[in-house]
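Task: sequence design from structure.
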């Protein structure tokens, strides 16, 4: 785990620095810990005019990058008049302009100490209330009152306080979320990219058919069918895979890829259909599609028409407008993905004798077999993301 730790003060003999250092010594496993001193991050006083004129100071940007780097941020707050110290507030204000949510996907341990009996609880409460708005997951808070009495060379003298801090550090240490959530952010970002790629593939394949060779020609059409088949396999298998491995945050966030990758698959098939069955120069070509020989009950025809019709349907409903306006129907139509997958896979493997079609089919049956097996022998309802979140909170 990557840990960033600091005292939110520029006091050279800071008691909070001693506390934060002590807290990090309580980790039981080895971590990459960066203990920084805010004296090294002092920046000019924030003002909107300065921000507009000169941008973010280098040190504030470095501070923001360090937060981005960390999985866990441990801060011990010094309290000045019931609030943050100016050095910290100023740095925070600058750093907060670098990102929409500075602490997104970051877990935090918030500590505070003071010479007095309140243990800087005022600033600690403020921080605990505010940091979640900056995207942080606050694992817990700890206030150490009467610093010089309680923290000695031997550690925290009061047993109850020591246990409280130790438990907090161990909780942070045993929570695996942040490492994954950083990946999850990355995985989430890709879900939009897949949609863009999906529609681009559709446009490319269609235009290729319409505009034709030589400069725009797809010379290896097979690769597009392979991509379409693999994408369809992914969209169908990611859900049962996640049900089989519900602890995997990566698989959970990859569920969001289904829409975009589904568009890649159906977009290619629809693109080929359009480019083959429509033409600007010869519009009558469209009517050939409805000729009887295309619709008899030969296996190839059945598989081809089923693949095309389901691909069209899935392609047309894969947009936000349809999700919003055809909610019930949308969920029902989504189930066509199974028909689409099976018809395309049988078409490619049986009729066109493509190995990858067979491989996708085998994968499909093996994973669904395992999924059904798990359902029978472990019939607990599969946890969904929402219930996990509510449990966590
Ligand atoms: C301007 C100023 C305001 C302070 N206000 C508070 C306060 O509101 N509550 C408190 O408990 N201590 C207050 N203190 C005392 C600090 O808790 C004390 O200086 C402590 O050492 C700060 O922590 P540090 O050594 O980690 O910087 C204040 C100190 C200064 C200089």
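Answer:
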């Amino acid at each position: 785990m990557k840990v960033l730790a600091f005292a939110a003060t520029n006091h050279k003999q800071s008691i909070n620095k001693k506390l934060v250092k002590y807290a990090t010594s309580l980790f039981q496993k080895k971590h990459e810990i960066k203990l920084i001193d805010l004296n090294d991050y002092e920046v000019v006083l924030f003002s909107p005019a300065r921000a507009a004129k000169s941008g973010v100071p280098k040190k504030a940007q470095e501070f923001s990058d360090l937060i981005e780097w960390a999985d866990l941020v441990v801060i011990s707050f010094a309290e000045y008049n019931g609030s943050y110290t100016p050095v910290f507030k100023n740095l925070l204000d600058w750093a907060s302009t670098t990102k929409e949510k500075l602490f997104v996907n970051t877990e935090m341990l918030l500590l505070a100490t003071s010479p007095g009996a309140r243990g800087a609880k005022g600033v600690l409460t403020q921080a605990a209330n505010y940091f979640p708005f900056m995207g942080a997951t606050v694992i817990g808070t700890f206030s150490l009152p009467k610093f010089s009495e309680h923290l000695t060379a031997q550690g925290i003298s009061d047993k109850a306080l020591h246990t409280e801090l130790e438990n907090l550090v161990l909780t942070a240490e045993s929570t695996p979320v942040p490492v994954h959530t950083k990946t999850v952010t990355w995985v989430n970002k890709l879900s939009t990219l897949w949609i863009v790629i999906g529609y681009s593939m559709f446009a490319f394949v269609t235009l290729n058919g319409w505009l034709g060779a030589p400069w725009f020609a797809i010379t290896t059409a097979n690769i597009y069918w392979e991509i379409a088949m693999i994408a369809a396999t992914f969209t169908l298998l990611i859900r049962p895979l996640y049900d089989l491995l519900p602890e995997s945050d990566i698989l959970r966030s990859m569920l969001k890829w289904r829409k975009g990758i589904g568009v890649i698959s159906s977009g290619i098939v629809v693109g080929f259909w359009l480019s083959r069955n429509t033409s600007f120069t010869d519009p009558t070509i469209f009517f050939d599609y409805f000729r009887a020989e295309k619709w008899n009950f030969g296996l190839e025809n059945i598989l081809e028409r089923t693949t095309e019709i389901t691909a069209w349907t899935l392609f047309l409903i894969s947009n936000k407008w349809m999700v919003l306006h055809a909610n019930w129907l949308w969920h029902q139509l989504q189930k066509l993905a199974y028909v689409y997958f099976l018809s395309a896979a049988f078409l490619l493997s049986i009729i066109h004798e493509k190995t990858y079609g067979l491989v996708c089919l085998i994968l499909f049956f093996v994973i669904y077999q395992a999924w059904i097996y798990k359902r029978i022998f472990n019939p607990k309802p599969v946890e969904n993301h929402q219930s996990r979140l509510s449990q966590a909170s």
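The pocket of flavin mononucleotide is lined by residues 7, 9, 11, 14-16, 78-82, 114-116, 118, 120 (CB under 6 Å).
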